[in-house]
Amino acid sequence: MRIIDAHQHFWDLEANYLPWLTDKPVNFRYGDYDAIKKSYLPADYRQDAQEFELAASVFIETEWDPTDPLGEVAWVNSLRKRESLPSVMVAQAWLDRDDAESVLAAHGQTDFVRGIRHKPKAASAPGDVVPGAPGSMGDPAFRRGFSMLAANGLSFDLQTPWWHLPEAADLAEAYPNTQIIINHTGLPADRSDDGLAGWRAALMRAAECPNISIKISGLGQKGKPWESAENRPIIRDTIEIFGADRCMFASNFPVDSLVGTFSTIFNGFRDAVEDFTPGEQQALFHDNAARIYRIDPTREV
Question: Hey, what domains does the chain have and what are their CATH numbers?
């Protein structure tokens, strides 16, 4: 199957500064991240993805040195020239910073940058959401930066827990010309009945907005391997809510190598939609990412 991987990363820890991987022990939602505190480059990625025919990939910013968002773009450009990967990029920008206007203008003038990612401030639980909190999607400073995306031809990759997706819907309705792409399936980490009910309701609210799409990725659970039986219902529910024309499959490699191999994850995706039509499968694995991230077919590898 020919695939476009809609969410992947590269990093060279010997040459570049990624504070989250180099400054302190990493212990995020998958637990101990020590196994990925090493450089990960196109040769490593091609080895991981060798079972599949890789058409293109979308590089997502890696929380590079926040004082130098344009430095990561220059580094990715050198990778593209040398390795023909990645195909396109979602770059770092801080929408509530004073330099947002100049950074977004620079990204908009870079031919392989398709959008930006800025992780808004998030509450730790559904009941703790404070509307308009500084750094959140309701913050006027955040919205000022967000308002500049469309004019620069940029989309917005959104990584936030599902309980902030109603805010994302409000943002999408206020700026209907800006494409929003939810990362990692809205982070359905709580697999209890109540947790999944809240996640589904939040996805339904986001799906009301035609300018919101979603990447099915990041489905690992702390301390557990990636399993089709556990993730198939999540995959199916997401596609039912958003439709097969607004969902994309993605590896989140190398981060998700902590919970499964590339083959385990993509074969799990394939098994979950084995009864879908060939056209729907083509959309989920390739065409939607090509359209949403505006990938030139001549750049397919």
Answer: 2-299 (3.20.20.140)
